[in-house]
């Protein structure tokens, strides 16, 4: 980088990479700001690294791709103007100081020089290093949240991720922004992205509490409930997901907890408004609607095959949420589903039935379904037993 930076007035590592290096945290995002032509630097860097550059002329940015997955994002140092709250910004070329001033918080408004004899110098106009040491999330100016209300979500994420706290002034500005309903005026896709990012963090209990303190939950939907019950339920669901269904997206289950007081119709309408993927929306709605009923149904279900039949269509989201809120007999039976019944599969298939003389017909599905019922109930053990049972069924 030092070799290619000489023709440019200033070249800096910026943003979260600087924050994380100073904190000793891993970071694989390399963002470079250039006082000058960012695309020209990107092209020079790509030649130096033997990679390729993807320029974006409109924004003065370039992505440098090299090696086995290496990436550097290069941008012309710029300042931003917002035509109205929550709008995407209009940008103009600027100095590194102006570029840093447009950022969200002091801890993200530092840079490190990557040029020549100046290499490694920390550029910190706004006290970001001080705030890192003090564990403070602080905005750079009073209009920060009004310019971009999604910064409120990021402030909450940083608080929980790093154990930081907003200073009183920043918290007051955030709360005022929520009370002015600027969060509610954000585009649905931006709310969706910020919610998913916040609820995908490793720990979210304190974030949920902060959402309630700021009123973010009610600003997003009047029936969302980011309360202490939600915190406890999320902790329970997280533990069960890790044990039984680690493949399920954590954010989706956590969002179902926050939406647990909505009707299924409200959930689907709201999820559609957020532009969630249809599958995710349906999973969340199913969990909200089914979990309370599933608790009652499984408590009265003794036969293992019947238990599987009732729970499997709602696996994982609805089943996990039902388990997290169940006690006594219902809890034991849901645990049995996950621990004993969930992965029960037949060792024979339709092909085996064809070899026994059953051609393509609806009877294939019916026979396999009956065999699975018997296996779930412990009546079949192994492939040979399944073949014999299939012969019996076909000869009946």
Which terms summarize this structure?
396 residues, alpha+beta, two-stranded antiparallel ribbon, 21 helices, 11% strand
Structural description of this entry:
- There is one protein chain.
- This protein has 396 residues and is α+β, with helices and mostly antiparallel strands.
- It contains 21 helices and eleven strands.
- The chain has helices at 2-5, 16-23, 38-49, 96-101, 128-134, 144-147, 150-162, 168-179, 188-199, 205-214, 216-220, 228-244, 250-258, 264-274, 278-299, 304-311, 317-324, 328-341, 350-355, 362-376, 383-395; strands at residues 10-14, 31-35, 52-56, 61-66, 70-76, 78-81, 90-93, 111-113, 122-123, 136-137, 165-166.
- The longest helix is centred in the last third of the chain and has 22 residues, at 278-299.
- The N and C termini lie far apart (78 Å).
- The mean pLDDT is 91.
Give the strand order, joined by hyphens, for the main sheet.
Answer: 3-4-5-2-1-8-9
User: pLDDT below 50 for ≥5 consecutive residues: which ranges?
Assistant: none
Overall 3D form: elongated
Give the termini separation. Answer: 78 Å
Number of helices: 21
Please state the structural category. Answer: alpha+beta
Q: Main β-sheet, in a few words?
A: 7 strands, mixed
User: How helical, in percent, are the residues?
Assistant: 40-55%
């Amino acid at each position: 980088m030092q070799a290619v930076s000489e023709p440019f007035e200033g070249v800096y590592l910026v943003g979260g990479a600087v924050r994380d290096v100073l904190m000793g945290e891993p970071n694989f995002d390399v963002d470079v700001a250039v006082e000058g032509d960012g695309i020209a630097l990107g092209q020079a860097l790509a030649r130096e690294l033997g990679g390729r550059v993807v320029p974006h002329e409109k924004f003065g940015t370039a992505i440098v791709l090299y090696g086995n997955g290496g990436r550097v994002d290069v941008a012309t140092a710029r300042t931003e103007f917002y035509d109205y709250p929550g709008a995407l910004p209009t940008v103009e070329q600027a100095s590194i100081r102006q570029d840093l001033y447009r950022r969200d918080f002091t801890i993200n408004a530092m840079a490190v020089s990557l040029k020549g004899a100046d290499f490694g110098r920390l550029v910190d106009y706004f006290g970001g290093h001080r705030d890192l040491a003090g564990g403070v999330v602080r905005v750079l100016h009073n209009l920060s949240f009004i310019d971009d209300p999604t910064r409120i979500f990021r402030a909450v994420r940083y608080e929980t991720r790093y154990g930081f706290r907003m200073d009183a002034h920043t918290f007051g500005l955030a709360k005022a922004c929520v009370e002015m309903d600027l969060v509610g005026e954000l585009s649905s896709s931006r709310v969706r992205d910020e919610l998913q990012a916040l609820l995908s963090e490793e720990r979210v209990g304190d974030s949920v509490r902060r959402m309630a303190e700021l009123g973010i939950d009610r600003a997003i939907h009047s029936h969302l409930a980011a309360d202490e019950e939600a915190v406890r339920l999320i902790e329970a669901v997280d533990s069960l997901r890790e044990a039984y269904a680690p493949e399920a997206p954590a954010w989706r289950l956590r969002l179902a907890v926050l939406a647990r007081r909505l009707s299924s119709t409200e959930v689907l309408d709201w999820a559609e408004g957020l532009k969630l993927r249809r599958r995710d929306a349906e999973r969340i709605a199913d969990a909200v609607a089914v979990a309370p009923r599933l608790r009652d149904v499984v408590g009265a279900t003794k036969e293992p095959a019947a238990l599987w039949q009732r729970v499997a269509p709602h696996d994982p989201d609805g089943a996990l949420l039902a388990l997290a809120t169940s006690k006594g007999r219902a809890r034991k039976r849901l645990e049995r589903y996950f621990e004993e019944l969930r992965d029960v599969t037949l060792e024979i298939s339709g092909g085996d039935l064809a070899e026994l003389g059953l051609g393509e017909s609806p009877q294939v599905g019916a026979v396999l379904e009956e065999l699975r019922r018997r296996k779930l109930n412990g009546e079949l053990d192994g492939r040979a037993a399944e073949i014999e049972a299939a012969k019996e069924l076909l000869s009946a």
